[in-house]
Amino acid sequence: MEELPIIPRGIRFQAGFITPEHEAELMHIFRNELDWPTTKKFASRKSLHYGYTFDYKTFGIDPNIPYKPFPEWLQPLIPRTAQGGRDPDQVCLQYYPPGAGIPPHVDTHSAYDELYALSLGSAVMMQFRHTRAREDSKAKEGGVEETPEEGRAKDEREIVDVDLPPRSMMEMSGDSRLHWEHGIKKRKKDVLADGTVRMRGDRWSITYRWLREGGQCECGDERLCDTAQRRIGVEREFRWKQQQPQGSMREERQQEGEREGLGGIEDKGVLISRQVGSTGVDQGHHQFENGNILLSPL
Ligand SMILES: O=C(O)CCC(=O)C(=O)O
Ligand SMILES: [Fe+2]
């Protein structure tokens, strides 16, 4: 696995994890042999889970849901570079029709340690984003109290697009795992760094997760870490996760996610965006407010 020479640090890639022929066989199985959950909504993501189910109430394995053995097709797709080659505790196969996405999120810190994802079918742009309070906030300048609303308006958000080519295995470690959120925009096409518009097709991803020993994360990131948040008495944004395993995010969260991001009501501040991938790097600073992106010179 080669680490991408970008910020966020910690994204490792292995191109060509499987052959195109193997990929075609898998897509045949995914299309014809699996029992996908049915949804009324057009173009929505669907998930199937294997292995253990995590219990967000006890922060351990849910003893009421039996271990779901890995199907035969999954065996050769397990990355063996993580955790001394041990099987992952949880595997999630997801299907994204064109137009589907996944809201920006960080996979629960306390529950999971290492994360890998294999991409199959259509390429897609994944967005990593990082938010931090701006240095020049009023509170810091003169000790004047500011409302959380005023504070958020000064947040600085950095967005990096990372292209996920089919058949590539990605590992999220370090900053990219803990201090940046990741997500996939709900849209039918992606614009590459060189301006090319690329239509999306059917995509499948397989996410591999290993449970974190002890169930506590020590990163201390109060914005993104559930352990850090629990220690300071914050439970916000966490309740939604308590009923379902990671990766099958509930509808509310999905709708919430649609309101977030570039088109969201929360968007106010300075956005620094970069795009990376096979086509190179493009960098620009934009000001954004209420979903309108205003281009400004660097
Ligand atoms: O589809 C992907 O590549 C990643 C999905 C993801 O972030 C997740 O299941 O937590
Ligand atoms: Fe994720």
Automatic annotation (TrEMBL):
Ranges annotated as biased composition (Basic and acidic residues): 249-269
Listed InterPro entries: AlkB-like, AlkB-like_sf, ALKBH4, Oxoglu/Fe-dep_dioxygenase_dom
Residue ranges annotated for the Fe2OG dioxygenase domain, each copy included: 87-212
Residue span of region Disordered: 133-157, 240-298
Gene Ontology biological process terms from the UniProt entry: demethylation
Domain of life: Eukaryota
A GO MF label: oxidoreductase activity
Name of the protein: Fe2OG dioxygenase domain-containing protein
Species whose genome carries this gene: Xylaria bambusicola
